[in-house]
Amino acid sequence: xxxxxxxxxxxxxxxxxxxxxxxxxxxxxxxxxxxxxxxxxxxxxxxxxxxxxxxxxxxxxxxxxxxxxxxxxxxxxxxxxxxxxxxxxxxxxxxxxxxxxxxxxxxxxxxxxxxxxxxxxxxxxxxxxxxxxxxxxxxxxxxxxxxxxxx
Length: 151
Fold this sequence. Notes:
Elements: E1 14-19, H1 33-50, H2 55-61, E2 63-74, E3 83-93, E4 97-106, E5 112-124, H3 135-142
Antiparallel strand pairs: 1-3, 2-5, 3-4, 4-5
């Protein structure tokens, strides 16, 4: 996965601050692994909204990006009250798919705790069948490769 982290088409990553909550701690006294996947999803949606896309637009266009594959690397644990930052950026996109990376860091020591690489496929919401990305999605994703799209 590391080579994929250098292939970004996006000039700057989108970063979502995260504060570890009590209910995210498991019986090992660190953040449960499933929570990292929740944070990945929250960060991806926040980035999509920042690009001007929304669930309402997805519904209007009868299109959605569905997960084809997630590759998750858990590198170190996060603990109660840790201040974290989850970054995401587009690696590439084509007429059917979007590929993005994620990286989670603890702010106190800048240690990378988690990395992920995700492949999403465009599908019709009405029947789940794969289809091309609509122009609205392509336009939003193209803006990430412009130097003026600072986040």
